[in-house]
């Protein structure tokens, strides 16, 4: 009889353990059900790209002008270019009405010039003094060019001429609006084709697509050549590409 009593004890333990395991598994199912439900309810989306562009007329001109001289020694060449450039700046301020704050030095350089069959003998030094000049009145450009050329003479180098728009903030706003409206129109069409409703905007990203300022080829030489340079502002484009993600309901 004592042996039979000992045989019943493991049965009770196993039964209790089984009930405990069932309770634990039931608890795990109860807490995991909401996670599974959330992952099953993904938001339907549509991604579209819109483009918007507007054009404006340039109203400023930036001239990159250098005085370049070759001399027997570095100091002489540098001094000569400095004197010429100083005279150009004074002439632009006094005679062309250019604001001194619109003239800034962008480069000063002195380089040895080599000669001889082996190219190791220094024959002289080439010095250059470069300034950027912003012209805010395009009808004053011809006078500015004339002063630069007549003052600098054959040492004058026009390295770059660029047209730009001083304040393009209104053009930027219009281009953004056009790009977004274009994207929205595309999204509405896709929603209609899919027999769904267009929901809220989830994200917006943009990439500027504006055309760069208009450059003109560089010019070297004296006043006669400079006077022949025509300036036509033309048009510049301000644009944006936007990527918009919409919810579909």
TrEMBL record:
Q: Does the keyword Signal apply?
A: yes
What is any Pfam family matched here? Answer: SIMPL
Q: Does the keyword Oxidoreductase apply?
A: no
Give the signal peptide, or none: 1-30
Which of UniProt's keywords are assigned here? Answer: Signal
Q: Which GO terms describe its biological process?
A: DNA damage response
Read off the InterPro entries from this record.
26kDa_periplasmic_antigen, SIMPL/DUF541
Name this protein carries in UniProt: DUF541 domain-containing protein
Source organism per entry reads Mycolicibacterium rutilum
